[in-house]
Structure formats: C-alpha cells, structure tokens
Amino acid sequence: MTDSNLTDSPDETGYETSVPPEESPAECPYCGRPLESERLLVLHEGLDHWERLDDDRREAFQEAYVGEGDDLRTFRLKMLALLVVVYFAFLFVYSYVMEDPFSSTNAALLLVGCWRGVR
Ligand SMILES: [Zn+2]
Predict the structure, then answer these.
(1) Residue 9 Cα, ligand 1 centroid: separation in angstroms?
(2) CA 78/CA 86 separation, integer angstroms
(3) CA 16 to ligand 1 center in whole angstroms
(4) N or C, which terminus of the chain has less Cβ within 10 Å?
C-alpha cells in the first residue's frame, strides 16, 4: 500500500483505512474517520459518538438502524431460500447418482409431498 492512498493510520483513530485519491468519502466530524456513504456515517456516529449527537442525528441514526435491520432480515431470508435450493439440488444429484434407495423419482415425490404438507 502506498502512502498517497492512506488517509488514516491505526495510530490516529484505531481504524486502518485506505481511500483512493478520486473518492470523496463522508468523514466523521468527531474522529475524522472516512466512511463510504452518508448512511454509514450516520450509523457510525450513532454507535461511536451517541453522547455527542443532537436529537436530529439520533433520530437519523435510529431510522438508519431500523433500515439496516430490515436489510439484514431480507438477506437472511434470501440465504435461507438459497440454502433450501442447494440442499434439494444436491439431494437430486445424489439420488440420480446413487439410484438406490432414493431414486430421483422418489426424491421428487418426497419434495412434492413436503410441499403439499406445508400447504
Ligand atoms: Zn467517528
């Protein structure tokens, strides 16, 4: 890493960050830490400088924090759906390769049976 890209060393803020010269990140007014976006700045201020914030910034932090929770919940649901798809894909491949005792037809019938059981 070259010194021209380094804006903060771990000695100053406790964080090692590297900002490309053409970027203009949001910078924390309290500790000078560069952050990628205004939303991340709001979250950082709420987590690290809560006592120093006024009511507007605290409210902005709470809104950003709730939004972050919604994003995390959506991400977890997508990953669960992906895990189910990968599981059944491996099950079909296994049953196709092994053919016994679970043939691919039996695995498909099992999947349909589970699906009807859920409904
Ligand atoms: Zn800060």
Answers:
(1) 14
(2) 12
(3) 13
(4) C
Residues contacting 48, CB < 8 A, separation 6+: 28, 30, 31
- Closest by CA position to 12, among listed 35, 28, 32: 32
Yes or no: say if 95 and 102 are a contact pair by the CB < 8 Å rule: yes
**pLDDT digit string (tens) for 59-88?**
999 999 999 999 999 999 999 999 999 999
The structure's pTM equals 0.57
Ligand 1 center from residue 102 Cα (angstroms): 58
Cβ neighbours of 113 (radius 10 Å): 10
- Rounded-to-integer distance, Cα 57 and Cα 41, Å: 10
**CB 58, CB 50: distance < 8 Å:** yes
φ and ψ at 34, to 5 degrees?
Answer: -75, 135
